[in-house]
What we know:
The protein is of the alpha+beta class and 178 residues long. It contains 3 helices and 10 strands; from the N terminus they run βββββββαβββαα. Strand 8 and strand 9 form a beta hairpin. The longest helix has 16 residues, at 160-175.
Amino acid sequence: MNEPTLETKQIFQGRVISVQVDTVRLPNGGTSTREIVRHPGAVAVLALLEGRLLVVEQYRKPLERMQVEIPAGKLEPGEDPQEAALRELEEETGYKARSIRHLRSFSTSPGFAEEVIHLYAADDLEPTEVHLDEDEFLTCEAITLEQAERFMEEGKIFDAKTVLAVYMWKQFVRTGQF
Length: 178
């Protein structure tokens, strides 16, 4: 089953996303519209430093509050996700990973967006320098699993990528495998 596109109208083109409205043919022969957010994809890093999770705290305008999240960022056109993960980890936390591996890729909101996040695990970290983007204001810290679980209960950790990372970390602590 699919929904062939009959027409596409570009509604918005921004720095990070674009929005389009597609007219589609439904399986029953009728038509409908689909609002679609186009996004180049992103990476996120579950980085462990001496048994603690590296997180960044930053203000998230859509939620109008501070959030604690794992390091993450948008993919540049044609950029290799693993290279992007290494770049974002270093830029946001000031740590380089000597070891990194892909854990999962997942869709964030398949009902209206095409964004896919590639989640990596990084360890064997060495300190370097933080290189934040000019419009990026965040702080980095290393938290315990207990702190991460408490932050989820309190709503400080609220985004899907970080919640998934915390549960994967918890599984790793229990089983030795992600």
